[in-house]
Amino acid sequence: MSNETELIQADAAHVIHSLHHPSAHQAPKVWVGGEGAMIHDINGRAYIDGLSGLWNVVVGHGREELAQAAYDQMRQLAYYSSYVGGTNLPAIQLAEKLAQRCYPSINTFFFTSGGAESSESSFKTARFYWKALGKPEKVKFISRMKGYHGVTLAAMSATGLPAYWPMFEPRVPGFVHIESPYPYRFVNPTPELSDGVAAANLLEAAILREGPETVAGFIAEPVQGAGGVIPPQDDYFARIREICDQYEVLFIADEVITGFGRTGRWFALEHYGVEPDIVLFAKAITSGYVPLGGIGVTDAIRDVIMSVPGDQRWMHAFTYSGHPTACAVALANLAIIEREGLVARAGEVGNYMLKALHELDELPAVGNVRGKGLMAAVELVADKASKAPFPASEQVGLRVQQELTKRGLFTRIIGDTICLAPPFVIPTETVDQLVQIIGDAVVEVT
């Protein structure tokens, strides 16, 4: 079976896709290959990969050394459980490598298969920590609107994108949301304070409303990704860290998208001079070649895990935690990132891309261009002065996406916001092409 029509019919008959609805899957792309920052469909047409697959293929497509790393490890030991009482070489080596690269206070890691599992692991670890310290009432979590932390049940309850909720209600109790700092649209309730501090103070208000003795943690992406690529104000996270310290709330950084160089630093909170208590990672750790994620915890949290009585142990586990093949691919991937200087390159090419995208500011429909490192967004509006969005009935985002695809750029549009996060290896001339395509598509539709 190689005919595209037959393949699409078989897909429709047998595969349920993420965020599934048949109306959105009438003409799916059948992807068959990729090289660098380009992906190829079954008809042989090449497209710029505007979102690195799903924010994850940072070293680019077609890296034979990653396939080789998987092959070599699979021949030796493809898989064995790393439940307590057993371990393997790649898992040990990867944890050591992460201790070198992660925040100084974080030196210990638990491995998962992806971002949502990492969110779940962080929530359970935070509750465990407070119970072990004799504060069993600290069970609630505060997150932000426009935040995305996965869609397993607790992760979905933390995710601040309401479209994910209705058909799966009731959500897990104990999850509370505050507004995003969203600089383009944030309305400062306390103008005597900077927008960043005012937005962060919404966390303090929520903690006081819920009762500090009941709040276990605050979870936030350093740059909100699936909510529309939203970098915060520069002074936001310093105030967040202060508030978490003041009220004994664990600060959980969801670096599933931002970790391993996406913003031009190994981890994105480095831009803001703060460290979290728990860090989540996934996606770029293997460039998406095999599923792997995890959490890192501070030495203080690690010491609590290590010192409780045996009957109160950290009873959390996944079959594929510390999967030797996944860890081997991660090690090879991190070696590429280091060897080719891709973290610095993401920062440099990101600056180049953002500057080029700002040339679109003159278009009447472009309300806001924003970004951090090699992730950016172009938000389209009906009226620049009032920032009024286009009516949903006009389906501007969908139509722009169709025009982008027609012109050879495949990426994700959230509402009327074009999201961009190409592989770190994208050439600058391909960035120019990407920006040209966006400009043409926006003009065509609006």
Automatic annotation (TrEMBL):
Organism domain of life: Bacteria
Cell wall biogenesis/degradation keyword on record: no
InterPro entries, A to Z: Aminotrans_3 (IPR005814), Aminotrans_3_PPA_site (IPR049704), PyrdxlP-dep_Trfase (IPR015424), PyrdxlP-dep_Trfase_major (IPR015421), PyrdxlP-dep_Trfase_small (IPR015422)
A GO term for molecular function: pyridoxal phosphate binding
Entry keywords, A to Z: Aminotransferase, Pyridoxal phosphate, Transferase
CDD domains (UniProt xref): OAT_like (cd00610)
Pfam families: Aminotran_3 (PF00202)
Database matches in PANTHER family: AMINOTRANSFERASE (PTHR43094), AMINOTRANSFERASE CLASS-III (PTHR43094:SF1)
Protein family according to the UniProt entry: Belongs to the class-III pyridoxal-phosphate-dependent aminotransferase family.
Stated name of the protein: Aspartate aminotransferase family protein
Organism: Candidatus Viridilinea mediisalina
